[in-house]
């Protein structure tokens, strides 16, 4: 299927950055720069910035996302935020299973699956992150590992709900390191993910699935990565904190 029939999505993952005034300033700077984008533009911001960013992005084409949500609807889960809480605010997207959550906060494939289902049930769109560690790549198990992560994360997710899922392939060794996967490496694994979707669901679902690459994507390398046939967008960390850089990536997706 022609990739141009899929929706390209460029999402910024601000991670643990920006106070509210800084967040507002970044969105204000970004708005005119991405106003003519033909791809979807998303800012996934810290919980504390959600209201500010929702407000600042109002009337623009910037959509707003959170960076995690809990799998229970409510209850004694100190420090957690439910999917319903995000939905009620007007948040549209949520990042689930980011490698930093897997590495530092005990996130597992099983909890990623639970959070994914909870977010979809609440009506949120999920940016589901998968990706191998350097050791996995060196051991030659990247494809199997990413396939496994994808399958478990999507267990019991219906074909209808899958329409609200984007998958982000983020090799852990490329995140925040300045070491980008080559465009061939990125495309290869995105294609593996697409074939998993075809097997678990069907070809139509696979053809329609937006699959992003993430990991040191920046203004200089985005065009080549986004031109790959199976790369439909990007999940951007560091470069999403600078409006002009992020806007170049959005432009590249519009062309790619
Ligand atoms: O983790 C990432 C996005 O979720 C990528 O981060 P960097 O773009 O800073 O490498």
From TrEMBL:
Q: What class of enzyme is it?
A: isomerase
Under Gene3D superfamilies, the record lists: Aldolase class I
Q: For this UniProt entry, which residues form the secretion signal?
A: none
Keyword Phosphoprotein annotated: no
At which positions is substrate bound? 13-15, 176, 216, 237-238
Major subcellular location class: cytoplasm
Source organism, top-level taxon: Bacteria
Tell me a Gene Ontology molecular-function term this record carries: triose-phosphate isomerase activity
Entry's EC annotation:
5.3.1.1
- Please provide one cellular component term from the Gene Ontology annotations of this protein: cytosol
**Active site positions, chain numbering:** 98 (electrophile), 170 (proton acceptor)
Question: What reaction is this protein's catalytic activity?
Answer: D-glyceraldehyde 3-phosphate = dihydroxyacetone phosphate
Compartment annotation:
Cytoplasm
Fetch the HAMAP family from UniProt. TIM_B (MF_00147_B)
Q: What does this protein do?
A: Involved in the gluconeogenesis. Catalyzes stereospecifically the conversion of dihydroxyacetone phosphate (DHAP) to D-glyceraldehyde-3-phosphate (G3P).
> Can you state the subunit structure given in the record?
Homodimer.
This protein is called what?
Triosephosphate isomerase
Report the source organism.
Answer: Fumia xinanensis
């Amino acid at each position: 299927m022609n990739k141009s029939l899929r929706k390209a999505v460029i999402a910024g993952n601000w991670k643990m950055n920006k106070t509210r005034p800084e967040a507002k300033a970044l969105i204000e700077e970004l708005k005119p720069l991405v106003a003519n984008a033909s791809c979807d533009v998303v800012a996934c911001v810290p919980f504390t910035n959600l209201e500010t960013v929702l407000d600042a992005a109002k009337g623009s084409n910037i959509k707003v996302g959170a960076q995690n949500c809990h799998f229970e609807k409510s209850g004694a889960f100190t420090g957690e935020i439910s999917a319903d809480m995000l939905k009620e605010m007007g948040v549209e997207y949520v990042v689930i299973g980011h490698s930093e959550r897997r590495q530092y906060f005990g996130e597992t494939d099983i909890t990623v699956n639970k959070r994914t289902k909870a977010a979809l049930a609440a009506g949120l769109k999920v940016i589901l992150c998968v990706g191998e560690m350097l050791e996995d790549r060196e051991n030659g198990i990247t494809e199997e590992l990413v396939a496994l992560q994808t399958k478990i994360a999507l267990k019991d997710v219906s074909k209808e709900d899958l329409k609200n899922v984007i998958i982000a392939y983020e090799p852990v060794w490329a995140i925040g390191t300045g070491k980008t996967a080559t465009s061939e490496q990125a495309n290869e694994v995105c294609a593996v993910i697409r074939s998993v979707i075809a097997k678990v669901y069907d070809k139509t679902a696979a053809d329609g699935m937006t699959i992003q690459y993430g990991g040191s994507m920046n203004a200089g390398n985005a065009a080549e990565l986004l031109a790959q046939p199976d790369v439909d967008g990007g999940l951007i960390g560091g470069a999403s904190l600078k409006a002009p850089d992020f806007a170049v990536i959005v432009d590249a997706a519009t062309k790619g």
